Amino acid sequence: MSLNLQEQAAAKAFSKQSAVFDELYKADTVYQYKRKRVRDHIDKWLQPRSQILELNAGTGEDAIYFARKGHQIHATDISAGMQDILANKIKQHEQFNNISYEICSFTELENLREPGPYDFIFSNFAGLNCTNELEKVLDSFSFLLKPGGIVTLVLLPKFCFWEFLLLVKGKFKTAFRRFNGRKGSKAHIEGEYFKCWYYNPFFIQKHLEGSFDLLSVEGLCTLVPPSYIEGFAEKHPKIFGYLKTKEDKWKNRWPWRSIGDYYIITLKKKD
Question: Who contacts 206 (Cβ-Cβ below 8 Å, separation ≥6)?
Fold first, then answer.
């Protein structure tokens, strides 16, 4: 696997974080809310016993969830550390027959050991924001998916309502970090630095419009505060509950569907 410098930096950062990743987020109410929202969205589109390709699978939390529901998952990631944690979870949950895994960059999917075709492709929590070659990733979906196959991506848009509000606290760098365009924005995890790029839903839809139909776009953490606003749900449970209700009601409406911390976009390959 020949990774570029950007991907090498991201792989190193997430490998360092892999040992503590689950512990960091297991008690985070907003993080668990986000993960449930994504799973509920995907469950609406999955057919029984689907063949799923998961990109940037991380420690395998979602792979285990879908495997236990009877689906077959091939879980990929560029981080060896994350794949090691996933391998241990497969043993722990005895999911040897339902989950396979492979170290592979999502920009090199043409070299995938298990090329499919798949019923479903899935990428959670902004893994694809770690590349400035998203077009290359999107182009691979045509040969990886069966006719009528579905792809769901969870990405960071170019504008986040909550981040922009940080202007009032004088956090100008954070408020404007998504506006860096082609240069990307610097991110860091466990002392390792790499870049992120931001993509609006229209970018995905436009690039795939010839061979895919748009099924859904919904905002995630548009009204519910992002998880980096630490302790919000625990300190303000009633407000958190109210915001969840409103977000669920408005998640598919303009402008809420595209100004959250994330958005969830789902498309179907044309027959």
Answer: none
